[in-house]
């Protein structure tokens, strides 16, 4: 039982990070039905912005978080304007290919500009202490970092829910995702709304990137590939296009993954994650929280 | 296939190309570097054309082609290396196993639409790779070593021509038209009495079959195969060739597969910059020509064999 | 709009053409250099993973090779003033590209030897071309035993060499160190069941330790990434082991060491090159926990050997980062090649091959190297002791 609860704690940290990344995927998908394969690489850029801020500009980690979010948001908008916007009416495959192109560009450009070495954030950025926990008398340990990851994620989700439901931009986002043409007729600037979505999603990715860098203690130009893919899987599991779905999917995937490597084999972890994905898709093609809508003719 | 003037000319051209390369190779004009890339061009053409059948003509976005290639590669390699079977048997077995895998994967997942299918097939590709990583009989992560080098120009060319011939003829048949109808509008196709599931699975299995052939050729040219050879990046590479050439254009896939393979090889000395150039080209070309090089057009011999009153299908506009 | 599109397409076409010409141009300039200086340069093929997911290994190795050849050229080159001209190609970590790069280097750039790739799979692919054209190839870091010896025929691959020791060597040396130096009689082994590297070391260590008169009192396995090792460690403690062998990577190792010390296990712990990471102390819950632990490695950065220290300084000065084991091994490989050419008295591939095969006591920065009949190096394995979080060279054992 102690082991099981301990795995849940570890899974929650990983799941938080997945959820943060998945939010960006799902928002972009919700609004322009594009699998933004470059999303995982924006996370990497965010992690590096914070790294350079902390190491060379001697910034406080929280300030680095904010600068990284702003930088990544700008990058996200730039990518959308250059690579996706011209293709908005070109079917679904062409933007998918440019997304792969942007992803390759960021990964290899990163290898070229940032170098191939694995770096890590300076020690002591965030005091990482072992915290003894007791749940129903069972002794467990969590690190302050794990709690911080969870806290930041929950805070970000609350902020996002507020933005989406109570601000003008959020309402515009929902309107565009529901029906872009009708939204345009209602006087909503669809292009700007899409840009706002990319900016928000990318800022979330930046946070996820920094947390990932802190959690695994390494950053690398290719660090975004696997978490990006996993987070996309999480978004699909939860129901792509749905913000609560991304959260549920992220946490579910994080815990599931930790359990598989904890109780079975870490070598089988990835295949089993994909197997789970397919099973969920077969049983409920629109994801755990998705509604099955019939195809429009 | 009717023996029209055009078809005979194509046949003559194909045979001519075969003997030309054969003779160049025998005369030692083709260097080892060129030969390796010639093989990769051929293998990539098979992969791109077969994926185009699924993605371009039937409209099903599949991202697991490398998985089928892996099945073909491993099954054929086991047959020749461990069980001592002849190469043709190994190719056929590899291709059939890949096709069966295609049916097993296609039956449940092909009812998913669009992006769900994409992620499900990507997942299947990764499952196949993960399974190969965990099976000790086929070497696990270290892979299979010492596969005999049986793939040569003759086998490669034969298989490549076979792939193109079968797929082009399939597309010009009732079955092919049904697939295109599904791409254009699945619900309308169903209303017209087309068994959409049957045709989608059929296209999927055929695509997988030829990907299996490509895998078998790959394994028996490069001596060793490892699960790491068949990551989803390879599936992406193949998809890029298909979209780059034009969805729904066989000649487009052929040209794109050849061009991308050759450019990639030519830029090897630029190190990581080559991948950056590749990425930029990909973005720029897609932004300015989202329909790909050829769109849905074909590059045909009509251009050179004009028939009175017949419109010529030209390349591009 | 149509015009803009045409202009854009034209630009792309130009860019493409320029890229291809640039690619060809670069080769030509290499060849011309050779031609112009009247055969005063020796072309060396450097075939590495410079893009893709193992680019870190390839780049570190390539940078060290370029540094080494620069130094050799500055010091007058070989064979009476001939300069090395390393030609670098990227294989992206793909087998077919490793093979095609090797073919291009041999047939078009006329290299006399190939260095790299970093990983075993890519090396085996490149080695087929080296064998076909009878050009020697040396991998600094491919550890799979099959790289130099054909597993089916058990025959040595004539033109393939390596400079790193293969995995079993580490376990053999580890067992020797455990019995002779640490005086261990009852060993426990905890290894990762999901990792070939770990399983391989476990098997060999167990055999050797028993052969040396010891007894293995506990064998525990885990899966890489596991969090809780306390149950297994408790069993090890109860078995009364006086040494724990942990052949795993530093992430798992740190947690195991941490939890073992937490449970009051004070016996020495021993590992292999997977331990080599600046992060180890952090994972182990502090430097103090790592005292009385040891691991086998390719070299020790703290080795006072002045040539090693010079290399570390030069690498840092040139690339502004610390070299790793890949870089150190690649550096040795370059000097070994230069040495073989000097001994052969010619830059003929066949002569170089023969000289490489008869290498005796080559003085490298990682160790003195003698190439054995299987084309594997007989060299020192460094035993590193962790002292207050710092890696210190305990001793070197030749194998």
TrEMBL record, chain A:
The answer to keyword Ubl conjugation applying to this record is: no
What are the UniProt keywords, alphabetically? Amino-acid transport, Cell inner membrane, Cell membrane, Membrane, Transmembrane, Transmembrane helix, Transport
Query: What is a single cellular component term in the Gene Ontology annotation?
Result: plasma membrane
Membrane topology annotation:
Multi-pass membrane protein
The stretch of residues making up the signal peptide is none
Which cellular compartments is it found in? Cell membrane
Could you tell me the superkingdom of the organism this chain comes from?
Bacteria
**Any one biological process term the GO annotation gives:** L-alanine transport
- Check the record and name the Pfam families matching this protein: BPD_transp_2
Molecular-function annotations in GO: L-isoleucine transmembrane transporter activity; L-leucine transmembrane transporter activity; L-phenylalanine transmembrane transporter activity; L-valine transmembrane transporter activity
Transmembrane residue ranges: 12-32, 39-57, 96-115, 121-138, 145-164, 194-216, 228-252, 272-290
InterPro entries given in the database record: ABC_transp_permease, BCAA_transport_permease
Q: Answer whether the UniProt record assigns the keyword Transmembrane helix to this protein.
A: yes
| Entry's family note | Belongs to the binding-protein-dependent transport system permease family. LivHM subfamily.
Output this protein's name. High-affinity branched-chain amino acid transport system permease protein LivH
From TrEMBL, chain B:
Q: Does the keyword 4Fe-4S apply?
A: no
Q: Which InterPro entries match?
A: ABC_transp_permease, LivM-like
| GO CC terms, sorted | plasma membrane
What's the domain of life for this entry?
Answer: Bacteria
Query: A Gene Ontology MF term for this entry?
Result: branched-chain amino acid transmembrane transporter activity
What membrane topology does the annotation report for this chain?
Multi-pass membrane protein
Segments spanning the bilayer are 36-55, 62-81, 87-107, 153-171, 201-224, 236-265, 271-288
Arranged from A to Z, the UniProt key words for this protein are: Cell membrane, Membrane, Transmembrane, Transmembrane helix
Taken from the record, one Pfam family name reads: BPD_transp_2
Identify the CDD domains for this entry: TM_PBP1_LivM_like (cd06581)
Q: Tell where it localizes.
A: Cell membrane
Q: What is this protein's record name? A: Leucine/isoleucine/valine transporter permease subunit
UniProtKB/TrEMBL annotation, chain C:
For this protein, the record's SUPFAM superfamilies field holds: Periplasmic binding protein-like I
Region forming the signal peptide: 1-22
Q: Does the keyword Signal apply?
A: yes
> CDD domains recorded for this chain?
PBP1_ABC_LivK_ligand_binding-like (cd06347)
**The keyword rRNA-binding appears for this protein:** no
Which Pfam family would be a valid example here?
Answer: Peripla_BP_6
Q: Which PROSITE patterns match?
A: PROKAR_LIPOPROTEIN
- Leucine-binding protein domain: residues covered: 41-388
Q: Which family does it belong to?
A: Belongs to the leucine-binding protein family.
State the protein's name. Answer: Leucine-binding protein domain-containing protein
């Amino acid at each position: 039982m102690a082991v099981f609860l301990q795995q849940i704690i570890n899974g929650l940290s990983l799941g938080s990070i997945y959820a943060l990344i998945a939010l960006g995927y799902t928002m972009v998908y919700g609004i322009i039905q594009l699998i933004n394969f470059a999303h995982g690489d924006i996370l990497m850029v965010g992690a590096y912005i914070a790294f350079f801020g902390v190491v060379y500009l001697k910034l406080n980690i929280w300030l680095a978080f904010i600068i990284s979010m702003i930088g990544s948001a700008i990058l996200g908008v730039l990518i959308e304007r250059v690579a996706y916007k011209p293709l908005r009416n070109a079917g679904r495959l062409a933007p998918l290919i440019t997304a792969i192109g942007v992803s390759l560009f960021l990964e290899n450009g990163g290898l070229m500009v940032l170098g191939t070495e694995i770096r890590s954030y300076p020690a002591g950025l965030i005091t990482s202490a072992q915290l003894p926990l007791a749940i129903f008398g069972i002794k467990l340990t969590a690190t302050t970092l794990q709690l911080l990851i969870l806290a930041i994620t929950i805070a970000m989700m609350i902020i996002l829910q507020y933005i989406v439901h109570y601000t003008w931009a959020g309402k515009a986002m929902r309107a565009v995702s529901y029906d872009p043409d009708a939204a345009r007729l209602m006087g909503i600037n669809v292009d700007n709304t899409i840009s706002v979505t990319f900016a928000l999603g990318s800022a979330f990715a930046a946070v996820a990137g920094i947390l990932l860098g802190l959690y695994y203690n390494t950053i690398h130009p290719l660090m975004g590939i696997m978490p990006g893919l996993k987070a996309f899987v999480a978004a699909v599991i939860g129901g792509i296009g749905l913000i609560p779905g991304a959260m549920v999917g992220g946490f579910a995937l994080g815990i599931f993954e930790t359990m598989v490597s904890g109780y079975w084999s870490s070598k089988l972890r990835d295949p089993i994650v994909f197997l789970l994905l397919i099973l969920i898709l077969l049983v409920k093609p629109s994801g755990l929280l998705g509604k099955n809508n019939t195809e429009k003719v | 296939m009717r023996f029209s003037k055009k078809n005979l000319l194509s046949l003559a051209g194909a045979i001519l190309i075969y003997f030309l390369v054969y003779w160049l190779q025998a005369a030692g004009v083709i260097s080892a570097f060129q030969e390796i890339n010639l093989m990769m061009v051929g293998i990539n053409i098979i992969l791109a054309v077969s994926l185009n059948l699924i993605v371009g003509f039937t409209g099903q976005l599949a991202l697991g082609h490398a998985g089928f290639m892996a099945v073909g590669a491993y099954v054929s390699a086991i047959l020749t290396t461990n069980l001592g079977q002849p190469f043709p048997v190994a190719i056929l077995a590899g291709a059939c196993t890949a096709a069966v895998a295609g049916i097993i994967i296609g039956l449940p997942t092909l009812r998913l639409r669009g992006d769900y299918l994409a992620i499900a097939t990507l997942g299947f590709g990764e499952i196949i790779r993960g399974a190969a990583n965990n099976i000790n009989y086929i070497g696990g992560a270290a892979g299979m070593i010492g596969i005999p080098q049986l793939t040569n120009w003759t086998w490669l060319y034969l298989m490549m021509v076979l792939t193109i011939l079968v797929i082009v003829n399939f597309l010009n048949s009732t079955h092919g038209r049904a697939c295109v109808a599904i791409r254009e509008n699945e619900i309308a196709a169903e209303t017209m009495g087309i068994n959409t599931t049957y045709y989608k699975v059929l296209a999927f299995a055929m695509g997988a079959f030829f990907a299996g052939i490509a895998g078998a050729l790959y394994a028996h040219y490069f001596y060793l195969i490892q699960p790491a050879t068949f990551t989803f990046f390879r599936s992406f590479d193949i998809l890029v060739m298909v979209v780059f050439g034009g969805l729904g254009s066989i000649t487009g896939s052929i040209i794109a597969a050849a061009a991308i393979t050759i450019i990639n090889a030519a830029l090897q000395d630029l190190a990581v910059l080559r991948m950056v150039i590749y990425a930029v080209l990909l973005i720029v070309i897609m932004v300015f020509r989202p329909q790909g090089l050829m769109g849905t057009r074909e590059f045909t011999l009509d251009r050179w064999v004009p028939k009175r009153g017949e419109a010529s299908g030209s390349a591009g506009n | 709009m149509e015009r803009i599109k045409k202009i854009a397409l034209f630009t792309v076409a130009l860019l493409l053409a320029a890229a291809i010409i640039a690619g060809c141009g670069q080769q030509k300039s290499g060849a011309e250099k050779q031609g112009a200086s009247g055969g005063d340069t020796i072309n060396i093929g450097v075939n590495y993973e410079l893009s893709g997911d193992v680019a870190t290994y390839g780049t570190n190795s390539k940078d060290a090779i370029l540094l080494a050849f620069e130094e050799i050229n500055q010091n007058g080159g070989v064979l009476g003033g001939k300069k090395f001209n390393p030609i670098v190609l990227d294989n992206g970590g793909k087998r077919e590209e490793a093979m095609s790069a090797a073919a291009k280097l041999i047939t078009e750039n006329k290299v006399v030897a190939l260095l790299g790739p970093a990983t075993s799979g890519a090396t085996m692919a490149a080695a087929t071309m080296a064998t076909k054209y009878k050009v020697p190839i040396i991998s600094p870091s491919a550890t799979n035993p099959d790289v130099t010896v054909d597993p089916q025929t058990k025959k040595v691959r004539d033109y393939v060499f390596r400079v790193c020791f293969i995995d079993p060597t580490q376990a053999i040396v580890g067992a020797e160190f455990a019995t002779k130096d640490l005086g261990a009689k009852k060993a426990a082994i905890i290894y990762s069941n999901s990792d070939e590297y770990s399983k391989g070391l476990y098997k060999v260590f167990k055999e050797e330790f028993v052969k040396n008169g010891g007894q293995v009192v506990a064998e525990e396995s885990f899966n890489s990434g596991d969090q809780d090792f306390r149950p297994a460690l408790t069993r090890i403690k109860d078995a009364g082991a006086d040494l724990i062998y942990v052949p795993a990577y530093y992430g798992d190792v740190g947690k195991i060491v941490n939890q073992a010390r937490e449970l009051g296990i004070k016996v020495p712990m021993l590992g292999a090159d997977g331990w080599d990471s600046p992060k180890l102390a952090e994972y182990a819950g502090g430097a103090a926990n790592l005292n009385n632990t040891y691991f086998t490695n390719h070299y020790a950065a703290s080795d006072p050997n002045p040539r090693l220290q010079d290399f570390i300084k030069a690498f840092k000065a040139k690339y502004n980062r610390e070299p790793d084991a890949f870089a150190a091994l690649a550096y040795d490989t370059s000097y070994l090649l230069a040495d073989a050419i000097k001994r052969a008295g010619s830059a003929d591939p066949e002569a170089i091959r023969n000289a490489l095969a008869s290498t005796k006591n080559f003085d490298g920065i990682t160790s003195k190297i003698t190439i054995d009949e299987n084309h594997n190096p007989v060299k020192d394995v460094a035993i590193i002791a962790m002292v207050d979080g710092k890696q210190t060279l305990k001793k070197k054992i030749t194998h």
